[in-house]
Amino acid sequence: MTISRRGLFTGGAAAIGGAVAGGVAVAALSPDPTAPPIPSPATLVDYGQAIEPFYGNRQSGVETEAQAHGAFVAFTLLPGTDRGALARMMRLLSDDAARLTRGEAPLADTERELAVVPARLTVTFGFGPGLYQAAGLPSPVAPLPAFPQIDKLEERWSGGDLLIQICADDPITVAHAQRMLVKDSRPFATVRWVQRGFRRSAGMEPARQTQRNLLGQLDGTANPASGTPSFGTAVWRADHSTQLVVRRIRAELESWDLLGRTDKENAVGRTLGTGAPLTGVNELDEPDFTKLDATGFPVMPDFSHVTRARQTDDRLKIVRRPYNYDDAPAADGTADCGLVFASYQSDIVRQFIPIQQRLAEKDLLNEWITPIGSAVFEIPPGAPEGGWVGQQVLV
């Protein structure tokens, strides 16, 4: 039988609908033995209501399992912001942060409904050299030395007196927290720069899966695992403080795309598929720097990123907590993307700078990455319940 277009909307459609009702719909009521089970509501993860505590000996957002979205907001203090003003600012911002991380609106929040999804929100405060100067105190951090072989630093991504690192598994949560904290900082400081980044969304990969950067490589394989003695040795001081380096690193994807897979893996020192060192099979295999190939050359090139960054002493390691960024491409389609590279360590001079010097001298990956921003911050201890971050320094 031939069914006209008009017939589909009149009698023909009714006939077909009856067939569906009599056949397919009935079949749909019968369970398919090959279909995977539908998870019950009790097994679903409520990512939105997950809470990371704000108060504690150490600030959260350092050893916290990295969230999907991050914003790094740097401020320049207003003239005349002295130690007393800094204390008032940190009391206010700490109270905002404590409320937001609990899924509660700050006192002056006019969009309170945006605060009810904490999504593992963490707010981490960092003090730059200028803040200590304003407080009349010696600074425990100083700008990094120049690395002229690789650096093309831009003022718009560098420096800062105060840093607020805002991370959560939901971008609206991050945006709202940023808005509240920026609003309450206005009497004391102006925004110097904001760098936003992302990782895989919550639940997309197994917990503790090493993230990939936009070059396609696993990033952070050699990190000490959170909660282990090696992490504590690398990051935390006895007073529960630490230090942070933020480097904005542009990925030169247009030239990276021209490389073959083998050349990319030699530059990194790891296979792109598994992240294993070129002498291994699995991501966490230890590289063998003595192994030679058939021509007598090291399988792990001495110019590879893994070789140059290698550090076996826990006291001299760093912990990478980077976020990808991907801004609008140029009119000709040239990509503007890379890493907001966040490195935590107990002592920048002793740990970060020697590694960065080795990378600057001979890391072949420098051909395809360019540092365009740099800033350093002291991360003071956490706040006791009802207290505020920085009270050990500013009182």
Helix content: 25-40%
Please state the CA-atom Rg, rounded to the nearest Å: 26 Å
Mean pLDDT, all residues: 92
* Structural class designation: alpha+beta
Major pleated sheet: 5 strands, antiparallel
Number of helices: 12
Characteristics of this structure?
alpha+beta; 5-stranded antiparallel beta sheet; 4-stranded antiparallel beta sheet; globular
Structure description:
With 395 residues, this protein is α+β, with helices and mostly antiparallel strands. It has one domain. The protein contains 12 helices and 9 strands. The chain has helices spanning 5-8, 11-22, 24-29, 83-101, 129-134, 171-185, 229-235, 253-256, 261-268, 305-309, 348-362, 391-394, and strands at 69-77, 122-127, 162-168, 189-198, 242-251, 319-320, 323-327, 336-345, 369-379. The strands form 2 sheets. Strands 5, 6, 7, 8 and 9 form a 5-stranded antiparallel beta sheet that branches. A 4-stranded antiparallel beta sheet has the order 2-3-1-4. Residues 1-29 have low confidence and may be disordered.
